[in-house]
Design goal:
Length: about 400
């Protein structure tokens, strides 16, 4: 038995209709119950959440009670709940928008980084695909040469036996760099690339590692050691970058077992290059000269000590002082951003070229009978010819002079 004496024949329908009435929202009419179609005697506060029933809703279910026995709530409580809901929705929306904007900025930053370091040519994507295809063909060609249907010499090689060829090709690349011969450099780099591919295929056959492991390893290493590019670290000068690089190396797993930051230098590295790398690593932690003038003073000091030992005739001490002098000279080269190995190699090439001119000038004669004065004259003529050639073609002439590691006007 429902309130006001109205019998409810279908309680389930009554409850469902009451629930539907709660979702109609605040009625567009005023407080006049007649305007809303609600029968006389129906109290607004007794309707569900204060929502009035529309005329069509009452006409279809005349048997429903005029007042539905739901829990009462004051209009002030409803207003508080509505205001709280609005405030919650406002802050929730702001959080969602902020999170979405942060995701967009992060994605744009990730997409922008490759473009900053990409080539300026419009067909770079096509070139990359072509390069990937050709590299895959090189891998397959190397596998074919190692197969029973391939080459007997390639099948017989091991990683150890290929080492001398690798060293030879590496120095041929250095020679091409010193000569600044692009055609020769391209050819020698191809030979070196093939040997790298060859070693990776041999290792793959013995389940040691694959070319994909090599590429993924160097990719991860470069990203890890360039936090100023792929992270939030600030390093705007080459010295700051070098210091960051060395610090990251010390934290890596492969370097943690080393007792000194100088332990990572290869044993077979040339002496001049080793001296320079030692100085660079020491300088990265602040153990360095203040300016090149101090290093020049050190050279004069070591040179005087060498003169003293030469006069005394002590060969062992002469060797020590000569080593100190060479080490100080490498320091000057480092301050001036000159590669001492490259400088000495170019001087060797220059000497060979000028001495070849002497041999050509006195071809068929015994140079021991020619005399120093005649040979020195040809030497100076060759030197003058090189200077004239350098003025006409700076790129070609620059190969005869000790080279810088930094920017040069005659760099190709």
């Amino acid at each position: 038995q429902a309130p006001d004496g109205v019998a409810v024949k279908d309680p389930e329908t009554t409850m469902l209709r009451a629930f539907c009435h709660t979702s109609t929202g605040r009625p567009p009419h005023g407080r006049d119950s007649t305007a809303s179609g609600v029968p006389e005697g129906v109290s607004l506060r007794n309707t569900v959440f204060g929502c009035r029933l529309a005329p069509s809703q009452i006409a279809d279910h005349a048997h429903l009670p005029a007042r539905i026995p739901f829990p009462r709530c004051t209009r002030r409580t409803v207003a508080v709940l509505v205001e709280a809901s609005r405030s919650l929705m406002y802050h929730f929306t702001r959080c969602c928008v902020s999170l979405l904007w942060a995701c967009i900025r992060y994605r744009v930053r990730q997409l922008d980084r490759p473009s900053r370091h990409a080539g300026t040519t419009g067909d770079s994507t096509v070139t990359d695909k072509r390069t990937s295809q050709l590299f895959g063909q090189l891998l397959e060609l190397t596998r074919l040469l190692r197969s029973p249907e391939g080459c007997a010499w390639d099948r017989a090689q091991t990683i150890s036996s290929i080492r001398p060829h690798f060293v030879e090709e590496f120095h041929e690349v250095l020679e091409a760099l010193d000569l600044r011969d692009d055609e020769k450099l391209q050819d020698e780099l191809g030979d070196l690339l093939y040997l790298i591919t060859f070693i990776s295929i041999v290792a793959e056959e013995h389940d040691r590692f694959r070319m994909s492991d090599i590429i993924s390893g160097i990719d991860a290493k470069l990203r890890r050691r360039h936090p100023h590019v792929f992270g939030d670290v600030v390093a705007s000068t080459p010295d700051e970058v070098r210091g960051t690089w060395e610090n990251i190396k010390l934290e890596e797993k492969t370097h943690k077992e080393r007792r000194s930051m100088l332990d990572g230098l290869p044993r077979d590295l040339p002496a001049l290059l080793t001296a320079r790398r030692i100085q660079e690593k020491a300088a990265s932690v602040g153990f360095d000269w203040d300016n090149p003038k101090d290093v020049l003073s050190k050279i004069e000091e070591e040179l005087q000590e060498l003169r003293t030992e030469i006069e005394d005739g002590n060969v062992d001490l002469q060797e020590n002082e000569l080593g100190d002098l060479l080490f100080a000279i490498v320091n000057v080269a480092r301050f001036q951003e000159i590669d001492p190995e490259a400088a000495l190699r170019r001087t060797n090439l220059k000497f060979r070229r000028r001495f070849a001119a002497i041999e050509e000038a006195f071809k068929g004669q015994d140079l021991r009978d020619v005399g120093l004065e005649a040979m020195d004259k040809v030497w100076n003529e060759s030197k003058t010819a090189e200077a004239i050639s350098k003025e006409r073609d700076p790129k070609r002439g620059g190969a005869t002079d000790p080279g810088r590691t930094g920017d040069q006007s005659d760099e190709p």
